Automatic annotation (TrEMBL):
A motif (VHIID) lies at residues 355-359. It holds the Pfam family GRAS. Residues 545-621 are annotated as: SAW. Belongs to the GRAS family. Keywords: Transcription, Transcription regulation. Residues 324-389 are annotated as: VHIID. The lineage of its organism: Eukaryota, Viridiplantae, Streptophyta, Embryophyta, Tracheophyta. It comes from Raphanus sativus. InterPro entries: TF_GRAS. This is Scarecrow-like protein 34 isoform X2.
């Protein structure tokens, strides 16, 4: 057995494996630690009985907590001596007691000797006890009120006025308690209504089947225009510093073990970077945190804790939803992904009785309310919707609670739009181990598999796995034999096993994202700051600071994914030119920035910013 055990990513040394096997553990624990092995236990000796009982409790607590044998022997010894002195006082007339002593090595021996009666009398004499009691009473009186309001006349009988006073007081307390409860309940209801309204504004379509988030586009653009002059001044100042070069040199110093140079460069970067600056300053601030975490040499869970500490902001679901709304209003990437998957799924499910969607990485199910709303009242769509949501389990006793809550929320939308609905949640840490029968695929239904931006977190060949989980999940989907498989990816090249190569590609990728926000949102927009911190910041931290199994952000290019999909047994469906042109018209109608790019290449729908492809979507069927 390996003594180095792993628990949630941490390695610890199981000291119980290194205990001396030569010790005789068959002995009575109480006699081994506390009593004299040369003496026979006396049933009438209450001191030995009490000591054995206390020792048994201590041993049970120690075993229950699974502590090693390296406990605090000095504290235990002090407790035993104090207990022994109390017992000695009650048996002072016997003239002798059992005392314990320990040597420097921690072994405990026993001895029997006379009691020092002078010490006992000085510690437990009646005069001394009476004096201590009187002193304590005098000190306590200082904290009592001067009046006699705390003195009760027990001889005076209760009259009717007293009873009515007590009754009114009790009724007042009950009313106050009910008022507090009702206020809390009303506050909870108000919060639920606000969250529901926010979900509707973010996740549903308007009368023209356009996202409602676009209503905030004009406000954001106006705020952007107002801050243009101030931003131009800051931009001139930040252009002097080449953050990309500084970040790359710092990464090289860390990779070669030159901590002195790395710290100097980090200090220089932090002096000029800012989470509220321009794109380069925000990128530098984000990557400096990740480089510092890598310099510390921590593991994955510790790095996650480190990131939580440096952000030190607890976000609610409403805060994340607000940030997500601003992201949708400033960027068309996710919206076009949703529309692409809707079109591909509905093309395969025309006039179907039941549509079964298996969503790998459903999380909060943000894309499906739009889909449910679109199904409402149409005749050429499936009459019943089944969704199987697959997600990583959350910690605690209810691993599937989050995705079950997603199912309840989607069920409310289906009830609202009169769409027959059925939902199943699957919480699995390793998606490649899910069995086919867990999906409950039924004959006669149209089966659609959706994977939106989540397969990038699966381990690949560089993760140290004997079998590639990424390919295993694709083979699992192929065995399901779906009618359509919609796959959306983050188009990134920062999945190399070599740190410097991965770091350089990550710099270019995330700079494009920060620059996109810098051109579409004000710099002091709190939702923008929150989104960059909670999404881009965490991703960059994982890409830069983690290695091997701890690194879960492993995006690949759409060409690399194309090779994997063909190898898994899929055939790609073409992207119609009419769809690409429709999406381009949507960008103009929705008034998105002119530098957003929509194109088609190798049967992939590509989306990017200023010529750099950031996202790609494709549709597949079994070959």
């Amino acid at each position: 057995m390996d003594p180095n055990l792993s628990l949630n990513g941490f390695e610890y040394l199981d000291e119980s494996l290194f205990l001396d096997s030569s010790l005789d553990f068959d002995r009575n624990p109480s006699t081994f630690f506390l009593s004299d092995p040369l003496l026979q236990p006396d049933e009438n000796d209450s001191s030995n009985t009490l000591l054995r009982y206390v020792n048994q409790i201590l041993m049970e607590e120690s075993a229950g907590d699974k502590q090693s044998m390296f406990y605090d022997s000095l504290a235990l010894r002090k407790t035993e001596e104090m207990l022994q002195q109390v017992i000695t006082d009650s048996k002072a007339h016997r003239g002798s007691v059992v005392t314990t002593s320990s040597d420097a090595s921690g072994s405990i021996s026993s001895s029997r000797g006379p009691v020092n009666e002078i010490v006992v009398k000085s510690m437990f004499s009646d005069a001394e006890s009476d004096l201590q009691f009187r002193r304590g009473l005098e000190e306590a009186r200082k904290f009592l009120p001067n009046s006699d309001q705390w003195v009760f006349n027990l001889e005076r009988p209760l009259v009717e006025s007293d009873l009515s006073r007590v009754k009114k007081s009790h009724e007042r307390e009950v009313l106050d308690l009910e008022e507090v409860r009702s206020s809390k309940q009303s506050a909870t209801n108000v919060e639920d209504v606000e969250v529901t309204d926010m979900f509707d504004k973010v996740l549903l379509l308007d009368g023209e089947c356009d996202p409602q988030t676009l209503s905030t586009q004009q406000t954001l653009s106006n705020n952007k225009t107002k801050s243009k002059t101030k931003k131009a001044k800051k931009k001139k100042k930040s252009q002097v510093i080449d953050f990309r070069t500084l970040l790359t040199h710092c990464a090289q110093a860390i990779s070669t073990g030159d901590k002195t140079t790395a710290l100097d460069l980090l200090l220089q970067i932090r002096q000029d970077s800012s989470p509220l600056g321009d794109a380069s300053q925000r990128l530098a601030h984000c990557f400096a945190n990740a480089l510092e975490a890598r310099l510390r040499g921590n593991t994955g869970p510790v790095i996650q804790t480190y990131y939580n500490v440096i952000t030190s902001v607890k976000e609610t679901a409403s805060d994340i939803l607000k940030a997500y709304r601003v992201y949708l209003s400033s960027s068309p990437f996710v919206t076009l992904m949703y529309f692409f998957s809707f079109r591909m799924i509905l093309d395969a499910a025309k006039d179907a009785e039941v549509l079964h969607v298996v969503d790998f990485g459903i999380l909060y199910g943000f894309q499906w309310p739009m889909f449910i709303q679109y199904l409402s009242g149409r005749k050429d769509v499936p009459r019943k919707l089944r969704i199987t949501g697959i997600e990583l389990p959350q910690r605690g006793l209810r691993p599937a609670e989050r995705i079950e809550e997603t199912g309840r929320r989607l069920a409310e939308y289906c009830k609202r739009f009169n769409v027959p609905f059925e939902y199943k949640a699957i919480a699995s840490q390793h998606w490649e181990t899910i069995r086919i029968d867990e999906f409950d695929i039924r004959p006669g239904e149209v089966l659609a598999v959706n994977a939106g931006l989540r397969l990038k977190t699966l381990q690949d060949e560089t993760g140290g796995e004997e079998t590639c989980p990424r390919d295993a999940v694709l083979k699992l989907i192929r065995k399901m034999n779906p009618d359509v498989f919609v796959h959306a990816i983050v188009n990134g090249s920062f999945n190399a096993p070599f740190f410097i190569s991965r770091f350089k590609e990550a710099v270019y990728h995330y700079y494009a994202l920060f620059d996109m926000f810098d051109s579409t949102l004000p710099r002091d927009n709190q939702e923008r700051v929150r989104f960059e911190r909670e999404f881009y910041g965490r991703e960059a931290m994982n890409v830069i600071a983690c290695e091997e199994g701890d690194r879960v952000e492993r995006p690949e290019t759409y060409r690399q994914w194309q090779v994997r999909m063909v190898r898994a047994g899929f055939k790609q469906k073409p992207v119609k030119a009419e769809m690409v042109e429709l999406f381009r018209e949507k960008l103009k109608k929705w008034r998105y920035h002119k530098d957003f790019v929509v194109d088609e290449n190798s049967k992939w729908l590509l989306q990017g910013w200023k010529g750099r492809t950031l996202y790609a979507s494709s549709c597949w069927v079994p070959a």
